[in-house]
Amino acid sequence: MAEHCGPNEFAVREISVHAQGSFAAFLRKIEDAIGRLTSFFERTRYDYTRFNYIGEWHSHPSFVPEPSSRDDASMRKIVADPEVGAHFVVLLIVKLDAAADLVATAHTYLPNGEKHRAVVKLG
Ligand SMILES: [Zn+2]
Description:
Elements: E1 2-6, E2 9-12, H1 23-26, H2 30-43, E3 51-52, E4 55-59, H3 69-80, E5 89-96, E6 102-109, E7 115-118
Parallel strand pairs: 4-5
Antiparallel strand pairs: 1-2, 1-3, 5-6, 6-7
The structure holds zinc ion.
Zinc ion is lined by residues 58, 60, 68, 71, 93.
């Protein structure tokens, strides 16, 4: 969940961690997402234009933090889902490099099938 901070700029304000932590968990049930969104919306006083669902995240512990073809397919399914109703969704992928520093990529998926790399600012 993120805050819209400026033109094309969003700050992640809340993340949820799936209990199983497996790739299967990434393909979460829509009901789970709705439940998480409801409590986030309550805390942000239903200011949907400023605070909203932005997308999904997971780690690639042992390979590059770039979306796999399965990741692409999952995100395209989410952005096309009328129950989600998103104009775009972002996939954040993180990993720890050899020096144990966090590295991350983010990609934005649009309902028309386009995918664009985003700039990630950590910290
Ligand atoms: Zn992945």
